[in-house]
Each structure stands twice: as structure tokens, then as C-alpha cells.
Amino acid sequence: MLLLFILSGGYAWICRIVPVFAEELKVLTVEEPPSSFLNDKGTPEGFSVDIVREIQRRINNHDPIQFVSEIRALQTASKYPNVVLFSFTRTKNREDEFHWIMLLMRKPWVMYSKKGSNFNIKNLEDAGKMKRIGVVRGDVRAAHLEQMGFTNLEMVATHEQNVKKLLINRIQLLFYEPQGMSFVCGKLGIRMSEFEPVLKTKPSEVYIMMSKQGTNPETVRKWRDAGRMIKEDGTFQSIAEKWSKIIYKQNRIVCEVKNGALDF
């Protein structure tokens, strides 16, 4: 607190100046490489991490990025104000619950089987007839299948667990995505050729979003304005191109910027 002495009309007035601090934010994400992950040094890294850090730099926000489970992140943002989430899929059920800050990516959802299983999967209804489908608890893909009435879901805590289970035939199918599947296989030392995609669904759109109830509209505006400027001044394009090269070099997956998002 600062004290300010003001002389006026022969009198000395003492005023208190109380500093105004920016509201503290919880900035939450999930382990979803190459969008967001912890590197070997335990530091947040990834395409979406770079975008979020650039927004933070522009609005002078220094709150740390924290990794939590998807279900915990969503619960936190539903209950409390001033929570930033990334990278999360925009769905009909989530539409009115959050402020949607910025579109980041479009990526497909894919059903994987063990190589040589010869499953005839033409649509999700066919997948529903299988014995077990591996999904992660709280993941948007799990929620999508649950809403469709699937009763054959094998819930686990991480994608790594599902990849291991698929490898030893503990599950028949795994519902995931190409870039994440490639990263997890590399991390576990498992060849991607052990698996094969049997069904590809329509792409999902992945966003930065913010809790709605109680969050200051000015905070939302600052994040949205910074996100818009990042796209307008070419920064988004530069970061996306950097990660496109990394992703292709490491995983041989082609992605490019289309209509304001990194398309896989």
C-alpha cells in the first residue's frame, strides 16, 4: 500500500493508493500430445501450449499451466470462475456451459484394432457390437459413445493403458486419434504397425475455452482479442507451421493450417 500526501488549500491530505491486481486464473490442460504434454524435463510443451503462452504474454498473464485429468478439468471449470481450459472439443452439450475463446485444431476420431483382427467395422453401430472398446474416463470420445447408448466401454485413466490393453487383446477396439496414438506408441516403445485404423469419424473442433459462471467479461474479452490478433498478424500460422514440421518428422502425420485451425 502506498501513501500519497497532497497539499490543497493549505491542508495536507493523506490518501491511500491500493494496487489493483489482475484476477488469478487456473490454466488447465490434459496430456494430449502433440497439442499439450509434459516433455522429458517436466515442462509443458506442444502446439496448443505455445498458443496459450503467446496469449498470456500479450495480456501479461503469468499463471502456470497445470495438467489434470479431463474430467477434473471440466468439473473445475463448471464449478468455479476464472478457469481456462485447452485443448477441449466443442460439443453441443458443452456449448452453453463455457466461453469459447479460440479455435485451435480439427482432428479426426479413429477406431483402432490390433493388426490382422479383420473386424468389419463400417460405422459406430458396428463398433457397438464388439465386446470391449477402450476409452479414457471423462474423455469426450467416451462421452460421445455413452450418449449413443454404448454399453461395451472399457474405462481407464490414460491412453497408455488402452494401447497396452489393445496390444495384448484385452480390448478389441480403441477409440482415439492418429497423432495421440503415434505419440503414445513412441513413448511406450510399441510399433504403430501393431495396430490398424478400422473406422474414421468426422473431425472434432478443439478450442481454448473459459468457465462461464462468475468469470469477469473483461477477462474473456482480453483472451479473445489476443487470440484474434495472433491469427491476424500471422503468429498462429508460424506456430502451426513449426509444429507441422515437428509432427511430420516424428510421426509422419501430415497437418496444415486451414480456415483458422491446424487440420489433421
TrEMBL record:
InterPro entries: Solute-binding_3/MltF_N (IPR001638)
SMART domains: PBPb (SM00062)
Annotated Gene3D superfamilies: Periplasmic binding protein-like II (3.40.190.10)
Transmembrane segments: none
Superkingdom in the source lineage: Bacteria
Solute-binding protein family 3/N-terminal domain boundaries: 24-247
The protein's name in its UniProt record: ABC transporter substrate-binding protein
Species the sequence originates in: Desulfosarcina widdelii
